[in-house]
Amino acid sequence: MGGWSDASRQWEVCQYVRARINPYELADRILRDTFGPATGPDRLLLREKRIYSISSAQWDESTPGLLPGHPPPEATYPPSTLAVLLPLIGFLPQTALLPIYTSVNLLFLSVLLLFLAQWTRASTGLSASGAWLLASAVCLCWPPLVFAVQNGQAGIPVLLCALAFARLFPRRPVLAGVLLMLALVKPSMALLFAFIPLVHWRWRPLWTVFFLGVALTLLPCLWLREWPWIVLAQWMDLCRYVLQGAFSLQEVFNALAIENTVWSTLAILLLWGGVLAWCVWCRRARWEWLFAFLALANLAWTYHERHDFVLLAFPCLLFAADIVAARHRILSWIGLILCILLGTALSDFFYVPDAPWARLVRWSGRGALLALWPVVMARLRQSALAGDAPSSVA
Q: Which residues contact 238 (CB under 8 A, 6 or more apart)?
């Protein structure tokens, strides 16, 4: 995907950090000068102006602060993520970036499939080869996994780290906290997974995330010679401009022109509160269904693009494993069919064209995603009533 790759965009951000240019201040300033304020009575309305890239703002080579020979920084990830990405990709030659990044992404995909195949074998009683075939067939037919590799995204390692965190947190709390922090390189994909140890009153993973997050936030701020709270405020402000995505509450906020207002903030907080309350009520459920429910919640509360839906590869496999193991087959078949409808709507053939038949399929995908909520919530509650948590979490 070349310059459209997220790896390429974040590599550019790293070059600004290496040059000790604050990418958050620069990106925020360019967006504000071009489009006006993102908050307040005269704020920009995102239904009137769709901004998918900071480069869509007005800039040229004479723009103050711009690194010569580089576009404006797409600094949409938090400072803690920059502290992770800079040593990993920031010093790579640009010509080697995409081959190396794609190869590593494929390696993570292989490890993810191995993890899921082992889980499938334990969950269904299939042979090793049967479990591998089932896990591979379900996951590799899930379009967002392809998009994540194609677009140089970090969704696959985020999913793998989040799964390992959810599996390990009772026995290895500190390691689990490190894994969750790594998953939080994309906070919009992983933030609500912190509810899993929270509802079990396991604090060590959360304290690990907190202290590690503070340290990783301080490092780039010290290098950039900026106060951390200023850098965080700049990051949050520029993120208010790039809230276009697929199949989330943010679409509703933008359509109603309530984005970046107290009403959208209140709606998000209410969603978080409702999700947390349901997790508390179902805290004795197996970790798998808590994870599936929180994967849905992570995809709902803020903007996302198609590749972020890699999170739902695991719920798809959960439904397929239930069918193979003859568990709650009616709900599982409904869930699997809804996943197929959603995956179809996310595929290039239906997601890209601006045609009535394509829009119809996309709206069916939105409906399927909405219908997945009661199905997953019902399975989560059934698992809680069965009292599975002690055996699967311990």
A: 24, 27, 28, 31, 54, 75, 76
